[in-house]
Design goal:
Length: about 500
């Protein structure tokens, strides 16, 4: 088989890992990685990797996976600091400094036979049989071929920034801070013995009322917004212990949700954030990029026709990525509304958080943390079950549903007309709220006998939560009997008040 030339644009985790995997599995391919940043220069702080991602890396390349595990910082659970707070112990995740991860992958790529050049290149500059565009969220390759890739970029209206701190938190920590301007929320986690990542997010109105749009505007190009870091260091002084947040080209950003109708075009293929993004609240960017690299190398192995290999890669990865994007979008929307839940019981908030995307049910959560689910049950019903009862699905359902299930709607209940709801927390949901606002009833009810798929049930429960938050109303929903677990989860998470099984 003749040697094929592969050019990788972008020396981030996805691009370097693609070079590793292709070098190991396709020895007839000559791989060159082009990275415009000099060696050792990168932005960001720590990168989180889940247990499932680590298992994928173990199977794909045990050598680099072992180096990542040795260098990484093992997670020790989760701390939700709302009210009295809730701590979840355990967890097999690790976090690793981005610079350390890149060094491991750079070294392994060289061992696998790749060349790495510090250069800014475009597709037109390259003489290659295959070009892998792993050039990130702001991919120049995707932008130049936007029509060919059917690319779509949607910017969020909320803002966030990445910062760091020179100490290690005990565990991943979520902490809201109320200020005179609004609420800021930090997602923080340790990634070394004396380092932590701090991601801070807020809504546009709070950002502007705090005057941070002006500090952002006067910050030069690749510099950090030091005034915002000073402000946030004061806001989160209680968790920082008087330390100052660290910057590394730290600027306010709006999250870009990227999707592409096609990932390949005439020998050019997109990989990682260049092709797709999933919200940072589930720590997904590096995971998806490295798993893309594994799938791409597998598709290229033994295949003489690039077009066939790239079609196989996309057909293999797209369904998994799009499922992950759907989960991430649920998580994204949950965090946008998080400040409005701060008056709920801590265990209720944690139950809501753990079941926010639908991939974890309340039964699954109770298996690992029955004490938290028992506390959430007490907050709902006034009576605390034993941990054993909380961890047993039928016993938990009986306790939760006993006084929260109706068979017939009372006269003081009004049916809320809904229709198709594409975006519960957007314009569609707002329209439903306005229709419900004029209804004179003690209870608002969402019924839809035809929409019984699980996605429909979860959407209806989310809409119920919006009605509760926006109108302060008591809200009930219809659910199929097959969705009993989701009904229990919605009640314990404070999304709905009552359910009727149909």
């Amino acid at each position: 088989m003749s040697e094929r030339r592969v050019a990788v644009i972008g020396g981030g985790p996805g691009g370097l890992y693609a070079a590793v995997m292709i070098g190991l599995t396709c020895p007839d391919h000559e791989v060159t990685v082009y990275e415009h940043n000099a060696d050792g220069q990168t932005f960001g702080f720590g990168v989180g990797l889940t247990a499932s991602t680590l298992s994928s890396l173990d199977a794909a390349d045990p050598v680099s996976a072992a180096a990542i595990r040795r260098t990484g910082h093992l997670g020790r659970g989760l701390d939700m600091r709302v009210g009295a707070g809730v701590v979840l112990d355990g967890g097999d995740n690790i976090a690793i400094g981005r610079a350390s991860l890149l060094e491991i992958l750079r070294r392994r790529a060289l061992e696998a036979g790749a060349r790495i050049e510090n250069a800014h290149v475009e597709v037109s500059d390259l003489d290659a049989d295959l070009v892998i565009a792993a050039d990130g969220v702001r991919s120049a390759t995707r932008e130049k071929l936007a029509a060919e890739f059917a690319a779509r970029v949607d910017l969020d209206d909320a803002l966030y920034l990445w910062a760091g701190a020179d100490f290690a938190l005990d565990r991943a920590t979520f902490l809201p801070a109320r200020t005179p301007h609004g609420v800021f929320v930090v997602h923080a986690y340790p990634y070394g013995p004396n380092r932590s990542t701090f991601l801070v997010e807020t809504d546009d109105a709070t950002w502007r009322q705090a005057g941070l749009q002006t500090t952002d505007a006067r910050t030069p190009g690749d510099s950090s917004d030091e005034e915002s870091l000073d402000y946030l260091s004061e806001v989160f002084a209680h968790i920082l212990g008087g330390r100052r947040l660290l910057g590394n080209r730290t600027r306010w950003q709006r999250f870009a949700t990227i999707s592409c109708g096609r990932w390949r075009h005439n020998g050019v293929v997109l990989l990682g954030d260049a092709a797709h993004t999933a919200h940072y609240s589930i720590g997904s960017g590096t995971k998806l990029a490295m798993e893309d690299a594994i799938a791409l190398a597998a598709a290229l192995r033994g295949e003489t026709d690039n077009a066939t290999a790239l079609a196989r890669y996309e057909s293999e990865r797209r369904p998994r990525v799009e499922r992950f994007q759907r989960i991430a979008e649920h998580s994204h929307l949950w965090w946008k509304v998080f400040p409005r839940r701060l008056d709920l019981a801590p265990a209720t908030i944690m139950s809501s958080f753990m079941t926010r995307a639908g991939n974890i049910t309340v039964d699954g959560f109770a298996t690992l943390h029955p004490d938290v689910v028992a506390d959430a049950t007490e907050a709902l019903t006034g009576s605390r079950p034993t941990n054993a009862q909380a961890g047993e699905p039928d016993a938990l359902a009986d306790l939760v549903l006993e006084d929260r299930t109706v068979t017939e709607l009372s006269n003081d209940t009004a049916i809320v007309p809904t229709g198709p709801i594409a975006d519960v927390w957007g314009a569609d949901g707002a329209a439903v709220v306005e229709r419900a606002r004029g209804l004179q009833a003690h209870v608002l009810w969402l019924e839809d006998r035809d929409a019984t798929a699980r996605a429909d049930v979860l959407s209806r429960c989310a809409l119920a939560e919006r009605l509760r938050l926006d109108l302060g109303a008591t809200v009930g929903v219809d659910v199929p009997r097959s969705a009993r677990t989701d009904a229990v989860g919605a009640l314990l998470a404070g999304r709905v008040d009552l359910v009727r099984f149909r």
